[in-house]
């Protein structure tokens, strides 16, 4: 406490002062750390816990990002055929972690799904890519035009506050690009992921039009379902929209929710020192002094950050905008914001998964991803319900 006040009164840089004293932010403590009885919580089962058989059903991902959907589907036994991504850092992240995967994106290709003919030609050249395609297409078109959180970064009087949705010239119509690839390649199954706001923008007219196209192409479409990742073993409240379609008369049901949820404290109490991407933002002494006064679940109004409650799922990990990473929440046990690695844990990425680029862009990759564990549960349900009758499994 004395050091923090000294930094404040003498205008010292807290980060440099900690380094001078051989300390880190983790040596700081909250003033209020009440001892409370933990609520019922399921044990955390990481993605590595599930040892699925390799059944060989191929999967292609669009708008792959850092690969949350890809990791979940491969963990569920699917054969990863290709990932399409426009962002160079995301492509670098995917290639570093999975050098044998086929990544369609910079620097070899643009990875721009709007360049339909080029991307289609590249896909057709892949062994195993037939028309109709026997596997699964998965994708989450960039959600910023439909997102409440994205627009809350702007003033309510500003041009960008209103969710512009499909009127967004860069991102708003990528949903229809995804639909075009489905219509052309006719995958047996597709999975669409997006923010819940996609249901309401334009009163649902554009989404309805997209689904009408797919029904006309022979797909049976599930009722759009808003899923909270916390219902599927993810230690984070994160609501997203999922839609599944299949070229058959079979019906698909999303898997039942796990109960009770997993607390964020379980994944944040394990040591992170020495792991890659354990990078936190630097803080001013004045900020730390405010954070130290917060109880579990309380918000620092000035910094608009929340101290996570260790016995509950975390609040949603935020990606941030195009020029910087999102605000990460405050660690429940240490008065600082979460690191990239800790945020990735809340998203259920394995500790061995490395994110490339500057820390702000690492935060963005983490925050934009579908939690791999949630993707795994959806993928396993897709295989069990729509493929398992012709099982080709081989366990390793």
Can you give a write-up of this model?
Helix content is 29%, strand content 10%. It is of the alpha/beta class. The protein has a domain at 53-255 and 370-388: Rossmann fold (3-Layer(aba) Sandwich). The protein is elongated, with a radius of gyration of 22 Å.
> Mean pLDDT, rounded to whole units?
89
CATH architecture of the domain at 53-255 and 370-388: 3-Layer(aba) Sandwich
Instruction: Please tally the β strands and state the result.
Output: 10
By DSSP (H or I, 4+ residues per run), the number of helices equals 13
Hey, roughly how much beta strand do the residues contain?
5-15%
Top CATH class of the domain at 53-255 and 370-388: Alpha Beta
Ends apart, CA distance between termini: 54 Å
SSE pattern, N- to C-terminal: HHEHEHEHEHHEHEEEHHEEHHH
What descriptors fit this protein?
single chain; 396 residues; alpha/beta; Rossmann fold; eight-stranded mixed β-sheet; 10 strands; 29% helix
Give a brief description:
This protein has 396 residues and is α/β, with parallel strands linked by helices.
Q: Can you lay out the helices and strands and say which pair or pack?
A:
Elements (H helix, E strand, L loop, with lengths): L1 H8 L4 H7 L37 E5 L5 H8 L3 E6 L3 H10 L5 E2 L11 H9 L11 E4 L8 H4 L22 H12 L3 E6 L10 H12 L3 E2 L3 E4 L10 E8 L17 H5 L16 H7 L7 E2 L4 E2 L33 H7 L12 H10 L3 H15 L10
Parallel strand pairs: 1-2, 1-4, 2-3, 4-5
Antiparallel strand pairs: 5-8, 6-8, 7-8, 9-10
Helix pairs in contact: 1-10, 3-13, 7-8
